[in-house]
């Protein structure tokens, strides 16, 4: 049966690219929007705080599948008069959903920074927005990397739900092969393995980024310089 799956390899390859594209657009847009929503939840102005809060509550409290169907069948047709295709609907749904989770990650990361950092910056005459941009966010970003990475992997897997609006993603390829041969083990097992490979690669990349931005990270060039200095110092002592 796996030779039949090989004959559909182009469909699976296209499905992988569609899945990656949906994940990339949804996550990048979700991170940018989530940054503003997360800052909104930290605002003391009620007209900013409450819309941000209700946004997060709605998209975290309702199933992503329902959100996809609402956006594809109701929101976009009502705004534009017709559907804009599965990619636009899927990307918008993933972006809006991811933004709600990223907003909470960003809010928690900013609140984890000691308040004295902001007070010290303000005491030096630095405006609040500048202090947030140059002092708070760079420190908070280091602590956000693991949960943001988990959200990326979760979004990659959740992108399979877009297949309900006829998206030609990875799961759609498995459904086509399963329907063509009325066999389900091989095609869906293939889909599961491909998702596992993608999440494994994403996990390795996230681990590299997390290590790169950790406080204990020392570039290899600096390591070599420091080791040379220690060897020279040891030689001088002898």
Automatic annotation (TrEMBL):
Classify the protein's membrane topology as the record does: Multi-pass membrane protein
Task: Determine if Transmembrane helix is one of this entry's keywords.
Answer: yes
Basic and acidic residues composition bias: residue spans? 225-238
Name the Gene3D superfamilies on file.
MetI-like
Pfam family of this protein, just one? BPD_transp_1
List the SUPFAM superfamilies hit by this protein, alphabetically. Answer: MetI-like
Domain ABC transmembrane type-1: start-end pairs: 16-206
Where does the source fall among the domains of life? Bacteria
Q: Which InterPro entries match?
A: AA_ABC_transptr_permease_3TM, ArtM/GltK/GlnP/TcyL/YhdX-like, MetI-like, MetI-like_sf
Which CDD domains does the annotation name? TM_PBP2 (cd06261)
The listed locations are: Cell membrane
PROSITE patterns tied to this protein = ABC_TM1
Q: Which family does it belong to?
A: Belongs to the binding-protein-dependent transport system permease family. HisMQ subfamily.
Entry's NCBIfam families? HEQRo_perm_3TM
Protein name, UniProt field: Amino acid ABC transporter permease
